[in-house]
Design brief:
It contains 10 helices and 10 strands. The chain is of the alpha/beta class. It has 2 domains: 196 residues, Alpha-Beta Complex (2-enoyl-CoA Hydratase, Chain A, domain 1), CATH 3.90.226; 47 residues, Lyase 2-enoyl-coa Hydratase, Chain  A, domain 2. 45% of the residues lie in helices and 16% in strands. It has a 6-stranded mixed sheet, sandwiched between helices. It has a 4-stranded mixed sheet with strand order 4-6-8-9. The structure holds ligand LHQ. The site of ligand LHQ has 23 residues, from helix 2 and strand 6.
């Protein structure tokens, strides 16, 4: 069973984690289906944004602990699970050519929290919360958590969040710069869809270049980053969307972007 659902909208797709009775805890089937959903979205020229959310009262409670490959310490290899199921998904989302919006509708725990944080723009319902639950079960933050958390909130907060495994509210997450914005519970999906619909009309290929530049900035020095900006700006400047954007500005009208290069 896929354990996700996909809804088509004009210009974007909503991908919903769909095991609400287990707070959308991830299984191998769900993680594979998620990967396929992101790959399909990237291959569909009509799709220009992806919105990820969870069904029910939770966003995602992390790895389904009843479905872990083995609980016998002598033979356990969680590294293999991470390598096969989580790492490709996180890499795929970070490098995805389309903007990925995440609507965190409830608790985001463990790998579920880091899945949300891998997305480009994260909205959270006021009642949602985030917990790096790993240390409570004697694991380390995976799904990119040790990379993204310090970059989002700084080292001091990342260390305390990971070592104490304390739950924080959506408001706290927004105040710390971990997420983009908090929205009232009942308005979450409307706001998230508005954002996805807006992004779906923007210069998609250029948004992909922006992601590429921002991704590279976490490891590049200034010189390398300036060179990359030159190269990517050259590409952006050769797109039909740039010509349209500049023309529309000069003609004092709204641009009509195709999203293509
Ligand atoms: C769950 C889960 C869950 C199974 C709720 N599994 N059933 C790990 C290992 C391997 C390699 C890769 O990397 C990872 C990464 C990880 O993600 S490790 C971290 C895993 N996640 C957690 O440790 C969080 C575990 N869950 C919780 O602490 C609580 O459920 C939270 C705080 C999320 C929510 O608490 P409540 O709102 O009180 O809900 P609940 O605990 O009653 O959960 C509702 C149901 O969901 C319940 O099932 P049941 O049949 O009893 O109604 C839970 O057992 C089930 N569930 N999380 N991760």
């Amino acid at each position: 069973m896929a354990e996700i659902s996909i809804a088509e909208r004009a210009g974007y797709r909503i991908v919903t984690l769909d095991r609400p009775e287990k707070l959308n805890a991830t299984t191998a089937g769900m993680l594979r289906a998620l990967r396929a959903a992101f790959e399909d979205a990237a291959a569909d020229r009509a799709c220009r944004a992806v919105l990820l959310t969870g069904a029910g009262r939770g966003f995602c409670a992390g790895q389904d602990l009843s479905a872990v490959n083995t609980l016998d310490p002598a033979t356990a290899d969680l590294g293999a699970l991470v390598e096969e199921l989580y790492n490709p998904l996180i890499r795929l989302i970070r490098a995805h050519p389309l903007p990925v919006v995440c609507a965190v509708n409830g608790i985001a725990a463990g790998a579920g929290a880091n899945l949300a944080l891998a997305c480009d723009i994260v909205l959270a319902a006021r009642s949602a919360s985030f917990v790096q639950a790993f240390a409570r079960i004697a694991l380390i933050p995976d799904a990119g958590g040790t990379w993204i958390l310090p970059r989002l909130v700084g080292d001091a907060r990342a260390r305390a969040l990971a070592l104490l495994a304390e739950k924080i509210t959506a408001d706290q997450a927004a105040e710390w710069g971990m997420i983009w914005r908090v929205v009232e519970d009942e308005a979450l999906m409307e706001e998230a869809e508005k954002l996805a619909a807006y992004l779906a009309q923007q210069p998609t290929a250029t948004l992909g270049l922006i992601k590429q530049a921002l991704n590279a900035s976490s490891t590049n020095g200034l010189d390398a980053q300036l060179a990359l900006e030159r190269d990517l700006q050259r590409k952006a400047g050769q797109s039909g969307d740039y010509a349209e954007g500049a023309r529309a500005f000069l003609e004092k009208r709204a641009p009509r972007f195709t999203g293509r290069t």
